[in-house]
Write a structure and sequence with these properties.
Radius of gyration of chain A: 22 Å
Helix content of chain A: over 70%
Distance between the termini of chain A: 51 Å
Distance between the termini of chain B: 100 Å
Oligomer: heterodimer
Number of domains of chain A: 2
Structural class of chain A: mainly alpha
Largest sheet of chain A: 2 strands, antiparallel
Radius of gyration of chain B: 27 Å
Number of strands of chain B: 21
CATH class of one domain in chain B: Alpha Beta
Helix content of chain B: 25-40%
Strand order of the largest sheet of chain A: 1-2
Number of strands of chain A: 2
Number of helices of chain B: 17
CATH architecture of one domain in chain B: 3-Layer(aba) Sandwich
Shape of chain B: globular
Chain lengths: ~450, ~475
């Protein structure tokens, strides 16, 4: 009977997430938020069913009653987040709230399956972060002069990166973490958000003569510090975010093309200069020939995705624990193996829907500062999703970044939740100002 | 404030830029999704069946009874049964006969052959859904799918018996479809007892019975390589038939000296008789005249130094000819000696392409997959792999290879019953002792519209014409006499 449930549940889960992700895009057909309410409700039902069926499958296979307690508690909190946003911020984007909870719940399920202790830890950090993040829209509304402090923001970001570079000890050759009071912080995660704000400040507040040069110097320092810490994934994200923000701020296509060319040249230089870059590229080109060393991770990831196939092996039926760092960087491979590649593709679509929503918010602003912040955060999010999923599927070389809101990692989940709250804050402010101006939505 | 906001003076909507960025990201994600779907549908097999992925095969085996492997006409080659205590065991009704072609599957010692190539397919059940559900409910295992191989029992037996107790390999393929009809490698082993004999066969480095010599054995090609040398000569010379050479039993070029087989002079030769009688001196002379860069490219086209489309685990054949090669090396290579190494199945592929007007059909070992009830799951269609040479070049080589039978070293394939064969012999020296050689033959039949290609190698077998040709003849006879 248990097997029947596992077998059937994977088809039902795929169906439910397909319904959910299609609705992510069908909301854009309706102009009025009120007309969208029905869709949002269906999404809530779909995500609750996915959560229920997944945990039931896990419980039937492990008979661990603790899982049911965890399910009950986390489900209540997720519902509470949805309701809280509704009451505290009626103007917030319900699509983003839904997506945020959907991605977190997929994360909780797969973490509970892979490593229950880590799932619990992730939940506690998420709870604290939600508590912190839910006031962000309010702060953004009250604190409108943030843009003036761009020099301070840039200095803080650079300072944090220098601090980590100098004082941290290297793990796997990369200097990423710093321990403060027993809690490990990955500075580059937090600096991502500060960086976007400082870039937006520089590009909107400075005289146009100096702003491009200043932005380039500040971004360059960030990127070089990250390269020095051997955090290449973050370095690439920062660089791309800089190029995109510069392009949107100036409207100059040459900056964009020049930036991409610069990225290509520096990637080639990185390949020549750093042996660890060459090792990763070689592992990407031919993981099976390098399976005993550098190709091991990516080969295991592809074994998992390939064996799972389109419909997956069923929750608990696969062997995702064979993939190194499966809970963090390789979470997408574990999801694909057990839920199936179709489920994984739907997960990508949900992430794309978040990205489109971020960009959509950016387009509604007349205020360049907020516009740039939204674009910067959208680029940060979208590019990180592309890097991690592209990496574990061998579409591009592996860079070792996490899937926001889904992957295990205190810093990752905290920063992702803050990012979503900032976007919500922007959305609320643009809706209230547009409502007073025109009374209609885009 | 020192800095004034500039966007009021110069209004930038910037939404066009934002749309551009959004579209670029959308394109990236569409490409990513397309790639993942493509990988899952078409490219995942090589990862799924990798031996490092055995853990997952083990998981599947807990729920599925490994499927059967059948010959092309439906005889059982591998089947899962039970021993006296109710444990699953894998039975191979033909014992040693298909040791390498079908291979073995062992929980402890891994898997090779078709068992390895189709590992996950055998552990997949496409039985009707109601039956699978009923099995799940009742705690029974589902029946895995059945693999129908391309192997032919009659052909396999003919090849197996003809090779006898000698070390070597025999391969027979259908040149029009790429189907592998027979694949024998010796010494072999009994796959029914693989776990009991494992230490013995695994540690036997002198005989290496676990090595599939047909696909993984690298041998000097000897005179069979003259097919390649002749092809290059035909390519470079518009009138190859005007070639003339007087053989004195040896050929000297700078500081290299090449001897004919047992030093016997062949007298006055043209290209056809040089090839038919396998004159080393004449082919050394031809090699010395060839354009080395173009020669190297021809070898690349014929799949040297690259992956070959072999359904089994294989080794790459190696050759070192390029624009920078020494004359001495090229002359050695041109008669199939020196550093050149080739697998028998690769030699069979080149032969198949010559027989099939220059086109190599993708070699295949599996015809169909059926579910446990006999319902078709997947049929594998024949596929062109690549054109290795032009039609004219293939026809010219065909004529040369026919000459080997009618008035050359392959005379033991003359006067055959009901078919005319063509081919090339080889006696490849493999050690300091020049009297020892591997016996090669590779050829096809019938001459007019070729059906099958047969390749034979006998390690230390001496003369190809004397040792390898009769084995090939037995296999051809089996094919054409029924």
């Amino acid at each position: 009977m248990v097997l029947i449930f596992s077998v059937f549940s994977k088809y039902i889960l795929t169906f439910l997430i397909a319904v959910y992700s299609i609705q992510c895009f069908s909301v854009f057909r309706h102009r009025e938020e009120k007309e969208r309410d029905g869709i949002y409700l269906w999404q809530n039902i779909a995500m609750s069913l996915i959560y229920l069926i997944s945990f039931l499958t896990l419980y039937l296979n492990t008979k661990d009653a603790d899982l049911l307690n965890f399910y009950g508690l986390t489900q209540l909190i997720l519902w509470a987040v949805i309701l809280l946003y509704r009451f505290m911020y009626p103007e917030a984007s319900k699509l983003l709230v839904n997506n945020m909870c959907m991605l977190m719940s997929i994360g909780f399920v797969i973490l509970a399956r892979l490593n229950f202790a880590k799932a619990k830890k992730q939940f506690i950090v998420a709870l604290i972060s939600i508590g912190m993040a839910i006031v962000i829209p309010y702060i953004l509304k009250k604190f409108k002069r943030l843009r003036r402090f761009y020099i301070l923001l840039a200095a803080a970001g650079i300072g944090a990166l220098v601090f980590v570079l100098v004082f941290s000890t290297a793990i796997n050759g990369s200097k990423l973490n710093i321990k403060i009071g027993g809690v490990s912080f990955q500075a580059s995660e937090f600096v991502k958000i500060i960086f976007v704000f400082s870039m937006a400040g520089i590009l909107t507040c400075m005289k146009s003569k100096y702003r491009v040069l200043t932005a380039t110097i500040v971004a360059g320092i960030h990127v070089l510090l990250l390269v020095a810490s051997k955090d290449l994934g973050s370095a690439i994200i920062f660089f791309i975010v800089y190029v995109i923000m510069l392009f949107v701020a100036t409207g100059n296509l040459l900056y964009f093309i020049g930036g991409l060319l610069g990225a290509a040249v520096s990637s080639a230089a990185g390949f020549e200069l750093f042996s660890h870059v060459r090792v990763r590229v070689e592992a990407w080109r031919d993981p099976l020939s390098n399976i005993d060393n550098s190709g091991y991770q990516i080969a295991q990831s592809l074994f998992a995705i390939g064996t799972g196939g389109f419909t997956g092996l069923g929750l608990t039926e696969g062997a995702p624990e064979r993939i190194p760092v499966v809970e963090a960087d390789f979470i997408f491979a574990a999801i694909s193996e057990e839920f199936g590649v179709l489920f994984g593709i739907c997960l990508i679509l949900i992430c794309v829907s978040c990205f489109v929503m971020f960009m959509n918010i950016a387009m509604r602003f007349n205020d360049m500062f907020y516009k740039l912040v939204a674009v910067g955060l959208a680029a940060t999010y979208g590019f990180q999703v592309f890097l991690t999923i592209g990496g574990v599927t061998k579409f591009i070389p592996l860079t070792g970044v996490t899937l926001p809101l889904v992957s295990y990692g205190s810093n990752s989940i905290m920063v992702s939740l803050i990012m979503f709250s900032v976007i919500q804050g922007l959305y609320i402010s643009v809706r209230s100002s547009n409502d007073s101006n025109e009374g209609s939505e885009v | 404030m020192i800095f004034k906001r500039k966007n009021k003076e110069k209004p930038i909507k910037a939404n066009r830029e934002i749309m551009t960025i959004t579209c670029i990201f959308a394109a990236l994600f569409i490409a990513l999704i397309g790639y993942i779907a493509y990988f899952t549908a078409f490219k995942s097999d090589v990862f799924i069946n990798n031996t490092y992925n055995n853990k997952r095969a083990g998981l599947l085996a807990e729920k599925i009874v490994r499927g059967k492997i059948l010959s092309r006409d439906g005889n059982l080659l591998a089947v899962t049964g039970e021993d006296g205590e109710g444990n699953e065991i894998r039975n191979y009704p033909y014992g040693n006969l298909f040791a390498h072609a079908v291979g073995f599957y062992s929980k402890d010692n891994g898997t090779i052959g078709i068992e390895a190539v189709t590992n996950f397919k055998l552990l997949t059940s496409n039985d009707i859904i109601t039956e699978r559900l009923s099995n799940d409910v009742n705690g029974r295992k589902n029946g895995g799918d059945t693999i129908i191989s391309t192997l032919d029992i009659g052909m396999q037996e003919a090849a197996f018996n003809a090779l006898g107790d000698r070390k070597g390999a025999v391969i027979a393929t259908d040149v029009t479809t790429g189907e592998i009809l027979a694949l024998v490698s010796k010494p072999d082993f009994d796959p029914n007892h693989i776990d009991e004999i494992w230490d013995l066969v695994n540690e036997d480095k002198d005989n290496s019975p676990l090595l599939n010599r047909a696909c993984q054995g690298l041998y000097p090609p000897g005179s069979t390589f003259k097919i390649v040398t002749a092809l290059e000569y035909i390519k470079e010379n518009p009138d190859p038939y005007g070639y003339e050479f007087d053989c004195t039993g040896s050929f000297e070029y700078e500081d290299v000296k090449i001897n004919c087989y047992h030093g016997q002079p062949h007298g006055h030769l043209d290209l056809g008789s040089s090839f038919a009688r396998s004159c080393n001196s004449s082919f050394a002379n031809i090699s010395s005249m060839l354009d080395r860069k173009s020669f190297g490219e021809t070898c690349d086209t014929l799949l040297f130094n690259t992956d070959i489309p072999c359904p089994y685990s294989f080794k790459q054949s190696g050759i070192d000819i390029s624009g920078d090669s020494d004359a001495a090396d090229v002359i050695q290579a041109g008669i199939g000696q020196g550093k050149t190494q080739i697998t028998p199945i690769h030699m069979n592929m080149i032969t198949s392409a010559i027989a099939n007007d220059g086109i190599l059909m993708k070699p295949m070992a599996i015809l169909e997959i059926k579910n446990i009830r006999g319902g078709l799951v997947k049929h594998y269609d024949k596929k062109e792999y690549a054109r290795l040479m032009s039609i004219d070049e293939a026809h010219a080589l065909k004529d040369l290879m026919r000459g080997v039978i009618t008035n050359g070293t392959g005379s033991r394939l003359k006067d055959t019953n009901g078919y005319e064969a063509a081919g090339k012999t080889g006696s490849a020296e493999y050690s300091k002792d020049k009297t020892k050689s591997h016996a090669w033959f590779t050829g096809f039949a019938p001459l007019d519209s070729p059906k099958i290609a047969v390749t034979v190698i006998v390690e230390g077998g001496g003369s190809g014409g004397e040792t390898a040709v009769p084995i090939a003849r037995t296999v051809f006879d089996e094919y054409f006499q029924r």
